[in-house]
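Hi! If you just cloned this repository, the fastest way to understand the data is to look at a raw example. We've pasted two of them here, unedited. The first protein comes first, obviously.
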Amino acid sequence: MHSSYTVNNDDILLKLCHSVSHVLSSTSASQVSHAGMVQSISRTRLKPDLGCFSIFDGGFSGLVVINFSADAAIEIYRRYMINMGMPESELAFSHTSDDVSNVMGELMNQILGDFIGKISKELQTSISQSQPKMLTINKELTISVDTNLDNAVARRVSFRTENNHIFYLEFAMDQTEFIRSADFEMDEEFDADSLIEAHGKAAHKPKVQTKDMLNDPSVKGIVADDADDLLSELGL
């Protein structure tokens, strides 16, 4: 029997941080990492130069905000597009470009999809998200995003790109706690690529040839003996 344990807000935040690092690193073919320290804040805000937010609801409610500096946004955007095969000469150079906003919005969508998929499976709950919204923000402007949270907990985590450009994740959700029951068994994770490879190897295994069996004298003898026995039982 497994001992019970709890999953709280900071555990959920850590899962979100892993999703941000994993998705941005894999899609941009670069190293994106998060700080080991988490800052407690009073409320979430959209800040310069490029802010993105999405609201989620279901098993628990909350808000995710990512504030990119212009340099961080452009670095991630350009690395992503080059990794997708786009020529560098055709890429935007300003974070105010619509192309940059569209790409960063798509990456935010992938981040939340990765996070929701993992957390829904682990916590055995259902979560939905709103379409991420991107805003290019002036230096003088800070926007607060209010959500209907009963007892909100807000956190900020800093991230660093491969070229040492900083951006921030801000996260707010209801104070909550998930408690795993002692007899609950988690589904085992599996690697889809390994599964496909295993099936591929099985498909290429040499099959037993029935023609070779029919040509085998020992097999013929067995078949003939069985036929003689049957004819004897019938009195023929």
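Ok, and the second one:
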Amino acid sequence: MFYKDDRLALFIDGSNLYAAAKSLGFDIDYKLLRQEFERRGKLIRAYYYTALLENEDYSPIRPLVDWLHYNGYSMVTKPAREYTDGLGRRKVKGNMDVELVINAMELAPRLDHAVLFSGDGDFKPLVEALQRQGVRVSVVSTMRSQPPMIADELRRQADNFIELDALREIIGRPPRENAAPEA
């Protein structure tokens, strides 16, 4: 499915990928992830999307965001909003879908293959739009979690589905005890 001359871009939904890997019991080594896709084609861009809690003194995801930025990832962040739900629970909202879609559509004319790291069914129209522009789309998520983290309609629309668990030996490392949670 990957060709050496393919112009590739990675679109990583940070919170979705973190949750999928955690459900499978491993952490992602982002240096290895980047190297793996550089090996599979000509990596044009690797985007990583996450919301950040800006009003806290220390954000547990900040070291990861800084490391990714320093190591060649194009970081797309925005402030997360905190709110209290109807049951009085503290919730955080920081959806990055629109930013991901805009970047993918802007880059599409210069791509042969887009790799989406998300199982969110809301991305099905994006996959269709990219395919109409002649871009092949691989989706990386998991069916091996309970419940599966990949929306069936997204998996079926993609040209290629990559089971995240199958990448464990290539891009994974054991989870750390005090690992920073992904926003």
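That's it. A detail worth noticing about the second one: The radius of gyration is 16 Å.
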